[in-house]
Amino acid sequence: MTSSTIATPVLAEVVRSGFVEGRHRGSLVVLAADGGVELALGDPAAAVFPRSSNKPMQAAAVLRAGLDLSGERLAMAAASHSGESFHLDLVRQMLAEYELSADHLRTPPDLPLDPAEAEAYLAAGRVRDRIAMNCSGKHTAMLAACAANGWPLETYLDPGHPLQLLVRDVVEEATGERVAHVGTDGCGAPLMALSLTGLARAFRSFVLAEPGTEARRVADAMRAHPEYVAGTRRPDTWLMRELPGALAKMGAEAVQAVALPDGRALAFKVDDGASRALGPVLARALELLGVSSPVVARIGEVPLFGGGERVGEIRAAF
Length: 318
Hints:
alpha+beta
């Protein structure tokens, strides 16, 4: 939830059998190619926790710390992976490459994020573990950066740790604002609150950064390997795969940020944290940015069912 007292508008409606049975409110900002605010709904200047939408900036921080990552490995450093076999295999490889083990990870033991993968994982007789948690790639990169610098591994998630201070520097530089609050993310990492406008500016800065810079290296790796950032059944992957040059990253509690290669960008948060509203809101925001692609309709399609038949949908309301 935002800390603002402004009543946020309805971003999405839940329509069943022609009847609006629910509404999702939130805030959204759309930036033009020149960085100016083209559309603001609700209070995008209020601080929110971007959750995993902060991950590109966290990945840039491990590069600033001197860790030499590229390709799929750098994409994994910015990932909320689905827990597919290729994700888990790469995390294990990265741990081995840096002489680390799963015991070093402070991610909570978890199941794969993707429901289909979680079912298969359990059916195979596996139990929750730290590598299966969707942030394990990010944590592996953080640990590797600490090991390379001789920084303590045991306290790598403390807000005052040298690595986390670097993360804060990157976040404040990319967003152009001071961190409003520091909390703890679901994975245990420090979580830095900022405005949606700042988040959109950060994504814009990553796609417009000069080649070879930390920000651009992260953006390029994510766009080249989107299936490692998310998964084969995830909207972030579809968008980056089918819309050349787009950079996209969702966050828990219904946060989303996207930047297009010409500098247009958006960020939004659904107040009640309902992830089911993400697709319709994102699709509508992309339409307002002038994006015309089959992937937009694919992302925005969220049907509702009754008795096994489609009886409604979740639709954007702005």
